[in-house]
Write a structure and sequence with these properties.
The protein is mostly helical. Helices cover 78% and strands 0% of the residues. It has one domain.
Length: 176
């Protein structure tokens, strides 16, 4: 499962649109230790993806921008917002962006055009990705603990319902 977390972290950092948090929270329902290990692997995949997208954007900014705009639910307004964030906050823009629903991949391809260097970008990427992973794992594990082993099925139903609603609200808001 750790390899899956790495691949998912990488994929979501490039062209995939489902968060690795989906896998991490599912794992956390059963094991905090495994979910934390997967979070580290997902972070590794995300950092590799971020570095590759950054390098691609430095080489061909127009093609990189075009690629992320082809990802479902990524909009030009997100690219504009990332540019404004970089102008205001430099590399640290990547830390706050995902909390506003702007995918990490957008920041990765816009950083070079906004004079952000790769090392500061990748350093800022660690808290940008890992803090959310840890928060989501903690919440999932907490809910699982509250429900207890006797209500394991209820935990899974709640997990599936919350992810379906979360993605539904996000995608509806992005599309509208």
């Amino acid at each position: 499962m750790s390899v899956l977390a790495f691949v998912w972290g990488f994929a979501e950092g490039t062209v995939f649109f489902l968060l690795p948090d989906t896998l991490l929270t599912a794992t956390a329902l059963g094991s905090l230790r495994k979910a934390l290990r997967q979070s580290c692997w997902a972070l590794g995949g995300a950092l590799l993806a971020g570095g590759m997208m950054f390098a691609f954007a430095r080489r061909d900014p127009s093609a990189a921008r075009s690629l992320v705009l082809q990802v479902p639910f990524v909009r030009a307004a997100m690219v504009d917002r990332a540019d404004a964030d970089f102008q205001r906050s430099g590399a640290l823009a990547v830390v706050s962006g995902p909390a506003r629903g702007i995918p990490y991949k957008v920041y990765a391809v816009r950083a070079p055009e906004n004079s952000v260097r790769v090392v500061p970008f990748l350093l800022a990427s660690v808290p940008a990705r890992f803090l959310r992973f840890l928060l989501m794992v903690a919440v999932a594990r907490g809910v699982s603990g509250l429900l207890g082993p006797a209500r394991r099925r209820a935990a899974w139903v709640l997990w599936a319902t919350l992810w379906a609603l979360g993605y539904g609200f996000y995608w509806t808001g992005v599309v509208l």
